[in-house]
Amino acid sequence: MAKNTLSSRFRKVDIDEFDENKFVDEQEEAAELQGPDGAEVESLLRQGDMMTAFHVALRNPPVNTKNAVVKERAQAIVLRVLTSFRSSEIETAVRSLDRNGVDLLMKYIYRGFEKPTENSSVILLQWHEKAFAVGGLGSIVRVLTARKTV
Amino acid sequence: MAYHSFLLEPISCHAWNKDRTQIALCPNNHEVHIYQKERSGWMKIHVLKEHNGQVTGIDWAPESNRIVTCGTDRNAYVWTLKGSMWKPTLVILRINRAARCVKWSPRENKFAVGSGSRLISICYFEQDNDWWVCKHIKKPIRSTVLSLDWHPNNVLLASGSCDFKCRIFSAYIKELEDKPAPTPWGSKMPFGEVMFESSGAGGWIHDVSFSASGNRVAWASHDSTVAIAEGGKTPVVASLYLETLPLLCLTFITENSLVAAGHDCYPALFVYDAERSTITFGGKLDVPKQSAQRGMTARERFQNLDKKATADNKEAVLESLHKNSISQILVLEGDKAKCTKFCTTGMDGGMAVWDVKVSSQSVMSLPCLLTLIFCIMA
Known about the structure:
The complex is a heterodimer. Chain A is 55% helix and 0% strand. Chain A contains six helices and no strands. In chain A, helix 2 (50-57) runs antiparallel to helix 3 (68-83) and helix 5 packs across helix 6. In chain A, 27% of the residues are buried. Chain B has a four-stranded antiparallel beta sheet with strand order 1-28-27-26, with no helix packed on it. In chain B, strands 2-3-4-5 form a four-stranded antiparallel beta sheet, with no helix packed on it. A four-stranded antiparallel beta sheet of chain B has the order 6-7-8-9, with no helix packed on it. The longest helix of chain B has 11 residues, at 298-308. The termini of chain B are close together. Chains A and B meet through helix 6 of A and loops of B. Chain B: This is Actin-related protein 2/3 complex subunit. Chain B: Keywords: Actin-binding, Cytoplasm, Cytoskeleton, Nucleus, Repeat, WD repeat. Chain B: Pfam families: WD40 (PF00400).
């Protein structure tokens, strides 16, 4: 047996990194949005102004950044707003969004599905139902095919 | 509107001859079958066997009556009718992955093949060597080319590929033709020049189509969007986010409107408003027959609640004409400027012919109204 079969370090090499035909997304020059302002959202929720909190939470989605911390923070803020809505108000909130807003909401909802907590799934499913009624299958397809995730 | 079920397998691709009496299609295998329209249906008259892999693209040149086919065996063949037999001529594409789509140019002196080798082969016949030669367009394509469409000037070629971009290339071959006149997409057109590139945000581009004048190009993307770009100094792009499943094929039927179909199994109309740069959904072109609503017994209601968690009586049956995704759409009558008939084939092995009637009530700023007439095939 040849000597070099003893070492298995080669198995840890990621050969995709060395593939010269590897597809790399173009670096866009767009500004790196840092996610919604958590403090502002908190104060609006305390005042009971759900709709404004909802719209503020959907601002500045961190789609262009690769920073996981920023994305986690944005996801937490949005989830907080979504869970503080009453079931009856969800539909009016969804209707107040434009097409891009509905797509963005869908992205956050599916992101929320990834890490289910105690009550989050139930409320997220209610949001999903209302968002699906407006956005249709197309909005879900756009979540699946998006290169820039929220 | 007429529907004929050819096979139980998907129809991979199809093409029509000039007078629309014969259709060449690939029944999801290595062969091409040519059917002739008889009074009582369709009869298979030829079987073209030469490919070693699935035939992924067929195009039938109307004037010169030649068929070009390309397949996953990395080859393309040009078929000419000699007497009553179709004789193939191999075209070496110099690709190392499957060929995916093929289109004759408007003047039929060259054809383009898109492949998984991340390049487009432009093939033309060299008289001296009595042989088809090909030139490659490689840069800047980064993934499989899924669809191609030629501009009416025989030089520009639109391509949609899996790197999420629609591009317009120049396929100018100086041995074949004179320098083309300037177009809204640009005036300098050396071979391989990129005249237009869409922004790569979105999904794979399944199909591209030039309008009849060549001034507009439309593409359908896998993220359930359809977009149209208008040529000019800075091309203006309008896009529409759909609420349905992604579209797989599209074609212009007038300068302002296009018909597209895909995984939802029905063709849909889209209207382009050039002034406002918007695309609007014009409606489904498939009118399902009204299924009788019969009442439900209480037992059925409870059974539904138990099985499906809903008390509705909606049956899980597709009401559209095609029972599976529509993968290809071709203009049959009229050209892309004033189409009166178009044809769709799909994964259900069926082919449907649709009639389009243009009612001439066009107000200057509004697009033409399109209504449909259904005629059942006798």
